[in-house]
Amino acid sequence: MHVVILGLDRRKAVRPERRLFSYPDINGEPEESSHAVLSPYLFDAGGLADPHLVVRKETKPINGMGRLIIGSKPIDGGNYIFGASERDAFLDAEPMAATWLQPYIGAREYLHGGERWILALHDAPPEALARSPAVRERIAAVREYREASRSAPTRKLAVTPRLYHVNVLPVGPFLVVPKVSSERREYVPVGWLEPPTIPSDLVFVLQGATLPDFALLTSTMHMAWLRHIGGRLTRIRHRLC
């Protein structure tokens, strides 16, 4: 964990000099620098017209670009999600389920490989489900899991157990951005995926993305913005934009 300790003054009684301590080596001694003014993001703001300028929260892009959204969030107690071996065993017992099992990609799978699969039953015909007892068992387990939740919104989801809490099932190529990425990467590894892959809520998704969208998200300019504005849990955390 990194801790930043700030000395605060009223705007009308600020000190003429600010001292900033930086740690090029987190285990080493700090380097002190002096500044006439610092921005809220702890860099020299002497060249800014407004040294108190901060990035405001916006609910949608201010430049007209597409909006990043989170991927599918099932809230299923793990009943719809399968590893590779679990998927094989489930299909041995219920071959019909192959129609509804889709690749499920989160940040870990996208960055490091590996396979997960998820049951996507949104449009499953009732007559087909009637012939799939193992799938119906999963649906019943999701309903019970949600009904037992302490969260009132989750309990409401028990009425529609075949649906996820967040339902993102792209119908065309889409961009994914992992929510958290290593600070050692020069660029956040943004990339294209295609249906029937279903993105999880551990990645951000840009549907209907264009090559200019991809170019901007993978640009040095965007990475400079992200390193200053994105949250950190030692790793870089992407923000919705």
Looking at this protein, list some descriptive labels.
single chain; 241 residues; alpha+beta; 3 domains; four-stranded antiparallel β-sheet; four-stranded mixed β-sheet; 13 strands
Write the H/E string, N to C: EEEEHEHEHHHEEEEEHHEE
As a percent range, the share of strand residues is 15-25%
Distance between the termini: 26 Å
Q: Give the number of DSSP strands.
A: 13
Task: State the major sheet.
Answer: 4 strands, antiparallel
Question: Which segments are poorly predicted (pLDDT under 50) over 5 or more consecutive residues?
Answer: none
What's the number of domains?
3
Q: What is the count of DSSP helices, taking H or I runs of 4+ residues?
A: 7
Mean pLDDT: 89
Helix content: 10-25%
> In one word, what is the shape?
elongated
User: What's the gyration radius in Å?
Assistant: 23 Å
Spatial order of strands in the largest sheet:
3-11-7-9
Produce a short descriptive summary:
The protein has 241 residues and is α+β, with helices and mostly antiparallel strands.
Describe the protein's architecture and organization:
24% of the residues lie in helices and 20% in strands. It has 241 residues and is α+β, with helices and mostly antiparallel strands. A hairpin with a 1-residue loop joins strand 12 (231-233) and strand 13 (235-237).
